[in-house]
Amino acid sequence: MISLFPKAILIITVLTIVSYLVICVGLLWFQNRLIFFPSKTIEKTPDLLGMPYQEVWLKFPDSTSESEQINGWWIPGDSDMVIFDLHGNSSNIGGNLGYAKQFHNLGFSVWLIDYRGYGCSSDRFPCEKQVYEDAELAFNYLVNERQISPNKIVVFGHSLGGAIAIELATKHPEIAGLIIESSFTSILDMVKVKKQYGIFPINWLLHQKFDSIAKVRELKMPILFTHGTADELVPASMSEKLYQACPEPKQLLMIPDADHNHVKEMGGDRYQETIKKFLESL
């Protein structure tokens, strides 16, 4: 029995190392499935909230597949300015209609899209590069098809949508402004906060980075950050860090007791008035 003990230790050690490496490979190849949770079921459409809309399908010009497309809703308003709405990682355009209604009530046209993998858009599972491409395609639709000047476009992004909005703004510094709600500094920072993967070399494995904190420093357009102090998914301190990192003009609105998905509701009149004044200033 004693002679078997070193062999047992060796076997356990080898199995532990192999398991560790298998998990590392899994984190490398499947990390987008730990970030994106696509929702295909659209429960509400704009007409249910009293907003006439046009359904739009956008195809990728360099795609060989007819099914490679994204779905969007164009909600016309009285203003010549447009709010380009980008939803989070586990929602779809139907889930952002509360924001759309808020902006539409202020007179703005609203443009919402679903990234590939979400809603009625094509089924390819999303990744960082892909959602950036989807946002770029949708932005070009506004400029080229709708003939809307970039300085008349305000990009709103919630949670992961905030990171996509920031990336889009780095490519189009001429846009009118940004509203970033309940978003994060980077995926690496989120991993550090959640602490699930502390024993793994995340710095080496991570390729879905969404490194917003490195990008906001170069932005020049007016930016409004909003966040709830009771957010248990994305710490409110991350919006504070984004705010501190970006140059003027900028604003930060913290809503007491609001969680990740109810900043607008918990913010009430203060939130509505801040949004209104920010948009009027552009």
Please, could you describe this protein's structure?
With 282 residues, this protein is of the alpha/beta class. It has one domain: Rossmann fold (3-Layer(aba) Sandwich). It contains 9 helices and 8 strands. It has an 8-stranded mixed beta sheet, with helices on both faces. Helix 3 packs across helix 4. The radius of gyration is 21 Å and the shape is globular. The protein starts with a helix and ends with a helix. The mean pLDDT is 93. Keywords: Membrane, Transmembrane, Transmembrane helix. This is Serine aminopeptidase S33 domain-containing protein. Pfam families: Hydrolase_4.
* Number of domains as seen in the coordinates: 1
Through-space gap between termini: 79 Å
Q: What is the number of helical segments per DSSP (H or I, 4+ residues)?
A: 9
| Class per helix and strand makeup | alpha/beta
Keywords: Membrane, Transmembrane, Transmembrane helix
InterPro entries: AB_hydrolase_fold (IPR029058), Hydrolase_4 (IPR022742)
Transmembrane segments: 9-30
Protein name: Serine aminopeptidase S33 domain-containing protein
